[in-house]
Amino acid sequence: MSELVCKGICKKYKEKEVIKNIDLTLESGKIYGLIGRNGAGKTTLLSLLSSQNPVSGGEITYNGQNIWENKEALKHICFSRELNPTSNNGVGTLKIKDYLKTASIYLPGWDSAMAERLVSEFELDVKQRMGKISKGMLSMVTIIVALASKAEYTFLDEPVSGLDVVMREYFYKILLEEYAESGRTFLISTHIIEEAASVFEEVIMIKKGELLLKENAEELVSRAFHVSGKAEEVDAATEGLLKHQVENHGRSKGLTVLLEPGQQIREGYDIKIQSLNLQNVFVALCGIGEK
Amino acid sequence: MRTLKYFGVQAEKMVAFVMAMGILYGIIFGSIFSETMQERSYVMTNYILMMGIIVILVTQTTLVKLNMPLVLSLGCGRKEAFWGAQWMTALLIVQFEFICLLSNMLFSNDIQEYAGFLARILPFICIASGVLSELLAILLLTFGNKGTWIGVLCMALVWAFIGFTMNDRVKDFDRSLSALSGSFRITLFAVLLILYAFLAVIYYYVWKKYELKAF
What we know:
The complex is a heterodimer.
Chain A: E1 3-13, E2 16-27, E3 31-35, H1 42-49, E4 57-62, E5 65-66, H2 71-74, E6 77-80, H3 96-106, H4 112-122, H5 135-149, E7 153-157, H6 165-182, E8 185-189, H7 193-196, E9 202-207, E10 210-216, H8 217-222, E11 224-230, H9 231-237, E12 243-249, E13 252-258, E14 271-275, H10 278-286
Parallel strand pairs in A: 3-8, 3-9, 6-7, 7-8
Antiparallel strand pairs in A: 1-2, 1-4, 4-5, 9-10, 11-13, 11-14, 12-13
Chain B: H1 2-33, H2 37-73, H3 78-107, H4 113-143, H5 145-166, H6 170-179, H7 182-207
Helix pairs in contact in B: 1-2, 1-3, 2-3, 2-4, 3-4, 4-5, 4-6, 4-7
């Protein structure tokens, strides 16, 4: 079983620290969801994990080997970035077929048959230039590169950005098919949390460059509750528990609790307890005003 | 191997483009201004060499802006990408040098003295373009687009000065150049290559710190 391990990684741009002391282990054969607010450091983290950018501190290893400039380790990792080309510059001047051809040269496990099949299923015209296609089509290109790379560790940065609901559902379907067939590890960052939640085995949440949690998605959701009612009742029932997103409405109060092992909400109070979905948990932990 | 293949293909695409444009210009302008087939061939070759020199000059900045970030995003390391860029520049220089030598054999002293002069000076200019290309890439990586424009402006001013002052001294310069011994020319070549290597070291040092962002 291979592992991609980060020990104490941090990343600074001049004086600004954008990734702060993250310890993280990605085990093989799982689908991870990477969620965080805009500017939390998701893309930066993915670029560090794939050795596209250097860390400012700490170390990232693949099976014990540092991945920086390590061709052997990088054969097992693919980060398919979100593309934002302009029509006159850089990647925007390339045709889709040229981009995929370059991917086939550099990604050692490249599956041409799969790439062709996906191009056909996405109905992409490979002669079009990247700067002239829609955001959704660019997402399709990044999905093709990620899936056809056949890399053991595959990272996707907002792969469903710009896709309509039909294509999003199709993406989750082919992702699960590929996962079932190959057992590859996927790390997917997304803002459309609830839709993707059923696909994630584990969730990695980052907030302001720090790792907030890394946990089994189902277990996380099972220990998160929204408690509401009269303020004094809610306070009494949740005494000693860590509270998030506290909302006061006159004499009423609502808050979210994340129960640790052995903890529970006190019974016998006139309160309403609701289970939460992953998106609600994320908002509770990372919402505006939440520290 | 993958980097040799990728950057090698990019180099050949550029050479093919320059050859096609040179032949096209040669046919159009050669037909207007030249009388004999040999003169038209000279015009064609001249265009190929001039465009080739410009291609060499802009190669590294083009690679830094497009191809090198692209291959980095697909799992290539910085060292590998750097050597790929050097390989591409070397291929371009060697191929255009070969055309220079061929041009020298075909046209020197046959058509015009100027043709021969160009054939004798262009090999040095090919390598000098490679040197300047490295410098522009360093300026781009260090200062962004501003750095490149400053570099281009400086080069344009220098070349304009040379062109202006040499305007009616081409024959004198050519005589001086022809009078230079073979060993001096070899030394000049060697100096240009050493300068290229020196700038390449700085280029790699700056490139190692490149941060891949959205593209």
